[in-house]
């Protein structure tokens, strides 16, 4: 029994000795490990102090890169749409792609093409049909994006930054695309780039026209009225951000008055002065020359005096030289009264075709339209004008009114204080657009974008 215990004890000691390591120093006073092996001999093992230890270089796999946080907000795409008469026209689609041309999502398509018309008429918005893989879409997917052909006017479509699966896309730059069939094989493709990385961003498109010369019944060129079907496409990215500056938190709008000055203009100027607002007056040249004191009073208070043509003629009925004359002579008249004329104009009745766009670009003028129209020239009722404006106004609105109407002047007694009460800043068109863009581009139509936030 004792012999058995003695043998077990020797075995335990041997196991302990195998794992025993002692630290000593060699003749150079360098620390070494001394290990006692099973033969009771000591083995010297060089060692390093913690200060001498070298860490391996990190590899690419070792580096943890943070995933960019998803961007929150929305992009609103808007443009002027003019419906065309005749067959095989008025079809269009609005969609998003990444910068590599990969399809992200469709915001809208006219129902005829989306619901199967592309099979019988392959030339109907073919770029969108191909990139969206429309032929593979399920009926419910088509129903979610398709709609009836709209009436003429300013159209707006919103992207909530998600793809077709509902996943939020990563921050970065994206392409917004609009393709329209002008007639048969003739079409226009608008493309622009919007940055949704961080702060508010604005962009416009470049238009590429594709004309089908093979169809003698639908031969179009740049002078054809169909080229005006979709013009001035704008995109606005508004991020969701609760930490906006005081200026950004205050919504800006531009209140505009056409065709004056008149006997009612001074009362409107009084209201603007009382409530600390500014506006833009698109003046009639003849009336301005009849009431220069009213114009100078408005101008000296910080309001803007802008070009509304020389004789208020419909530009579509004029020659190119006559259009140039209307714009240039009106600006010269404004300069003769105020000493300054902003590089923009509002065509009479808002009528704008390809010639007006090209002439404006040549002369260095931006084209100003509107986003809110109470039709005060028709509804000569102050209550109707008031309700119409207040039901449509939003951040970034350009409001069209006429200071030649007594009912409009009466409506302003309620409109202006109510807008101020709701927190809107009343600014000139130039101030509003300079907030949106670093500079205005001659020949561009402004007034078909949506909101500031």
Keywords:
453 residues, 21 strands, Immunoglobulin-like, 5-stranded parallel beta sheet, TIM Barrel
Q: If you had to describe this structure to a student in words, what would you say it looks like?
A:
- This protein is α/β, with parallel strands linked by helices.
- It has 2 domains: 73-239, Immunoglobulin-like; 246-446, Glycoside hydrolase/deacetylase (TIM Barrel, Alpha-Beta Barrel), CATH 3.20.20.370.
- Helices cover 30% and strands 26% of the residues.
- The protein has helices at residues 2-18, 111-120, 126-131, 139-145, 246-249, 265-275, 285-290, 292-300, 320-338, 354-363, 382-392, 406-421, 429-436; strands at 21-25, 31-36, 42-46, 73-81, 91-98, 103-110, 146-147, 153-159, 173-183, 186-195, 201-204, 206-210, 230-239, 252-258, 280-283, 304-307, 344-345, 366-368, 398-402, 425-427, 445-446.
- α6 (265-275) packs parallel to α12 (406-421), α9 crosses α10 and α11 (382-392) packs parallel to α12.
- The chain is globular and about 65 Å long.
Quick structural overview:
The protein has helices at 2-18, 111-120, 126-131, 139-145, 246-249, 265-275, 285-290, 292-300, 320-338, 354-363, 382-392, 406-421, 429-436; strands at residues 21-25, 31-36, 42-46, 73-81, 91-98, 103-110, 146-147, 153-159, 173-183, 186-195, 201-204, 206-210, 230-239, 252-258, 280-283, 304-307, 344-345, 366-368, 398-402, 425-427, 445-446. By secondary structure, the chain is an alpha/beta fold. The protein is globular and about 65 Å long.
The CATH homologous superfamily of the largest domain is termed: Glycoside hydrolase/deacetylase
User: Which structural class do the helices and strands define?
Assistant: alpha/beta
What number of domains? 2
What's the story with the biggest beta sheet?
Answer: 6 strands, mixed
Estimate the mean pLDDT confidence: 82
- Given as residue ranges, the uncertain stretches (5+ residues, pLDDT < 50) are 1-53, 58-67, 242-248, 449-453
- What do we call the CATH topology of the largest domain? TIM Barrel
Name given to the CATH architecture of the largest domain: Alpha-Beta Barrel
CATH class annotation of the largest domain: Alpha Beta
N- to C-terminal separation?
A: 93 Å
Strand order of the largest sheet: 7-6-5-9-10-12
């Amino acid at each position: 029994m004792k012999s058995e215990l003695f043998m077990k004890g020797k075995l335990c000691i041997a196991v302990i000795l195998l794992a025993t390591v002692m630290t000593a120093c060699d003749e150079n006073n360098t620390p070494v490990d001394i290990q006692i092996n099973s033969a009771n001999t000591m083995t010297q093992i060089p060692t390093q102090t913690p200060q001498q230890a070298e860490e391996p270089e990190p590899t690419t796999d070792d580096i943890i890169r943070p995933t960019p946080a998803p961007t929150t907000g929305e992009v609103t795409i808007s443009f002027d749409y003019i419906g065309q008469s005749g067959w095989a026209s008025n079809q269009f689609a609005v969609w998003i792609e990444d910068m590599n041309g990969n399809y992200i999502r469709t915001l809208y398509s006219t129902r005829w093409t989306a619901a199967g018309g592309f099979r019988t008429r392959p030339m109907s918005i073919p770029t969108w049909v191909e990139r969206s893989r429309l032929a593979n879409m399920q009926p419910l997917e088509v129903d979610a994006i398709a709609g009836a052909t709209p009436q003429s006017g300013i159209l707006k479509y919103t992207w909530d930054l998600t793809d077709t699966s509902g996943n939020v896309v990563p921050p970065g730059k994206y392409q917004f695309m609009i393709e329209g069939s002008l007639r048969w094989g003739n079409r226009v493709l608008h493309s622009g780039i919007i940055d949704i990385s961080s702060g508010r961003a604005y962009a416009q498109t470049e238009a590429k026209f594709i004309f089908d010369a093979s169809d003698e019944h639908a031969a179009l060129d740049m002078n054809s009225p169909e080229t005006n079907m979709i013009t001035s496409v704008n995109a606005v990215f508004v991020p969701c951000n609760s930490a906006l500056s005081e200026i950004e938190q205050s919504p800006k709008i531009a209140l505009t008055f056409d065709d004056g000055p008149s006997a009612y203009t001074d009362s409107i100027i009084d209201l603007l002065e009382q409530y600390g607002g500014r506006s833009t007056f698109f003046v009639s040249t003849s009336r301005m020359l009849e009431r220069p004191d009213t114009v100078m009073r408005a101008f000296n208070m910080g309001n803007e005096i802008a070009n509304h043509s020389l004789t208020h003629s419909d530009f579509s009925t004029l020659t190119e030289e006559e259009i140039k004359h209307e714009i240039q002579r009106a600006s010269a008249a404004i300069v003769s009264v105020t000493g300054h004329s902003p590089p923009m104009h509002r065509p009479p009745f808002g009528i704008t075709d390809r010639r007006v766009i090209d002439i404006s670009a040549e002369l260095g003028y931006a084209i100003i339209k509107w986003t809110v129209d109470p039709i005060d020239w028709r509804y000569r009722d102050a209550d109707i004008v008031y309700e119409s404006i207040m039901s449509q106004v939003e951040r970034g609105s350009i409001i069209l009114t006429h200071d030649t109407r007594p009912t409009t002047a009466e409506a302003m007694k309620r409109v202006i204080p109510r807008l101020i009460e709701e927190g809107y800043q009343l600014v000139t068109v130039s101030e509003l657009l300079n907030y949106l863009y670093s500079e205005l581009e001659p020949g561009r139509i402004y007034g078909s974008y949506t909101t500031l936030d």
